[in-house]
Amino acid sequence: MTSASPRARVLLVDDDEDFLFQHRIQLEHSGFDVKTATNRTDAESLAAEFQPDLAIVDLMMEQHDDGFVLSHHLKRRHPGLPVIMVTAVTAETGLSFAPASPAERSWVGADAVLAKPIRFEQLRREIDRLLAPGPPAIAGPED
Amino acid sequence: MDTLRVLVVDDETGMRLAVARVLNTYTVRLNDPDERVFNFAVETAESGEDALGRLATSVPDLLLLDMKLPGMSGLDVLREMRERRHDVLTVMITAYATLETAIEATKSGAHDFLPKPFTPEDLRVAVRRAVRHLLVQREARRLAEEKRQVRFQFISVLGHELKAPLAAVEGFLQILKDGSAGSDPAVIANVVDRALTRTEGMRKLIVDLLNLTRIESGQKRRELGEIDLREAALASIETLASAAGGRGVTVALHAPDRALFVADRGELDIILNNLVSNAVKYNREGGRVDVSIEPSPTGWSIRVTDTGIGMTPEDRGRLFEEFVRIKNDQTRRIPGTGLGLSIVKKLAQLYAGAVTVTSEPGVGSTFTVTLSAPTSRSLPS
After folding, report:
1. How many domains, in total, are found in chain A?
2. Chain B CA closest to residue A40
């Protein structure tokens, strides 16, 4: 049913506790090993000990660009770690960005960007794609 | 110096030239604090049709319109302008202003009349009066627009504040539906509890919103009667006893045996509940809240002091604005609508009072509400 390893480790970072709770339950139900953090600092120290296979980070936490900073830090310290950024920025500001090319991906610092509210199947699809063996595919534009 | 554009509509060439000559060299100095100065650029039209044609492409600040024109009359032009929503301050020039035509013209939007024949000074006086009116009108429009913007902003923030908890509740329902919560009753109960917490937050927001609307519109009849502030404060402390107990916060009341005040009990309850609830919510575990009711020179003051997280001077400045919640790591988990203090402030104004705050980060905050006497219903805008 999925190409992702059933016990892949996922780090979930968001300052919205409900979001964390809901997605932790759903990810665990899908067989992932999940750890959560509500801010950038906690996420960075947690990543060091947890060694996640994939990280899901919210863009706007305490600072409006925490997600960018966190994603850059994670990728520097954990080369090859796929990062999915989730954000309500599109819903709130109308600003939209999807990293369609490698250049844009390196600017955003994430391998995929999902606009909140996200559907779990959508998140699941991105996780499977990014955890699939082989070179990472370029994130397609969101539907 | 600002230049106002004046369109003169008259079929007599001599009249058009005379008006243009007078106004092109006329300057209006207002005695208002800004000491604004205006001069005029005059354009002319010889018929109503001609005038309407010009108005279609550019709208002047002021229109001097002859009542009696060949073809369309001045009144026809006014009516047509209304139809087309050309809103120009208009002075009617008329040789024989009967009461009927004057009423008709005023109904159609004319601001003033200049009877023919008139002297250059008559014209200047009329134009000066029109300029004053124009500025008042523009200022009123600007304020109305500002108010409209504030309203829009309020509604847009409100929409967001309602959407966020709704999305969370939908997420919880989705989890129950798709079975990811599993079959452990404890996990399911946790999901339901979290969803209920969010719906409770929405309910509080709506209650606050209704209170705010009621206060602002003045629609609710106030039931003024003599109430005992001591008794009201005790009731409020009782209401919040379980919230305080849950956090080990001690709430103490310092009040005279009787503190009588003429007020609407419901309004006083909202003030007290908001202040005491905040003092409990933003306190530290095991902290204390002191509620003091003291006579003041003009009435009473209610002071609520906590030993909580406090706030910075910058935060204090924004505190009474609608939907402002101080966001930091300490407040993130504390639920609130962001309307409570805005409501307290508006209610205090209904008693010719005010609310003030002193605070020190990490030490605590003191909110003081002064109450004089119930004012007539409407709030200062």
Report:
1. 1
2. B329
Residue B31 lies in a domain: yes
Non-local CB neighbours of B361 within 8 Å, separated by 6+ positions: B309, B310, B311, B312
Q: Does A117 touch chain B (CB under 8 A)?
A: yes
Touching check for B332 and chain A: CB below 8 Å?
yes
Residue A88: closest CA among chain B residues belongs to which residue? B164
- A-chain CB neighbours of B178 within 8 Å are 26, 120
Per-residue model confidence as pLDDT tens for chain B (381 residues): 889 999 999 999 999 999 999 999 999 988 777 788 999 999 999 999 999 999 988 899 999 999 889 999 999 999 999 888 888 999 999 876 677 777 888 888 888 888 888 999 999 999 999 999 999 888 888 888 888 887 887 888 788 788 888 988 999 999 999 888 888 899 999 999 999 989 998 898 898 888 888 887 776 678 889 999 999 999 999 989 988 999 999 999 999 999 999 999 989 999 999 999 999 999 999 999 999 999 998 899 999 999 998 988 888 888 888 777 777 767 777 778 788 898 899 899 989 999 999 999 999 999 999 999 887 655 544
Of A22, A92, A117, which has the smallest distance from its Cβ to B172's Cβ? A22
Task: Flag whether A71 is in a domain.
Answer: yes
Give the structural domain span for A80: 9-131
Do B229 and B82 reside in the same domain of the chain?
no
Pairing of strands B364-371, B2-9: unpaired
- What is the total count of domains within chain B? 2
| ipTM value for the complex | 0.71
User: Residues B132, B4: contact at Cβ < 8 Å?
Assistant: no
The domain boundary residue, chosen from B90, B118, B146: B118
Whether residue A137 is contained in a domain is answered as no
Q: Which two tokens stand for residue B297?
A: 């020179």
A62 interaction partners in chain B (CB closer than 8 Å): 327-329
A120 to B333: CB separation less than 8 angstroms, yes or no: no
CA dist list (Å): B344 to B82, B215, B323, B376 = 44, 10, 13, 17
| Residues B98, B242 share a domain | no
- Tell me if B147 is assigned to some domain: no
| CATH number of the domain within which B45 lies | 3.40.50.2300
Mutate to test the interface with B, among A14, A21, A41, A116 (most CBs of B within 10 A): A21
* Residue A10 main-chain phi, psi, to 5 deg: -120, 130
What is the residue range of B65's domain?
2-118
| Cα angle B270-B271-B275, degrees, rounded to a multiple of 5 | 115
Q: Which residues contact B215 (CB under 8 A, 6 or more apart)?
A: B267, B343, B346, B347, B350, B379
CATH of the domain at B340: 3.30.565.10
> B163 in a domain, yes or no?
no
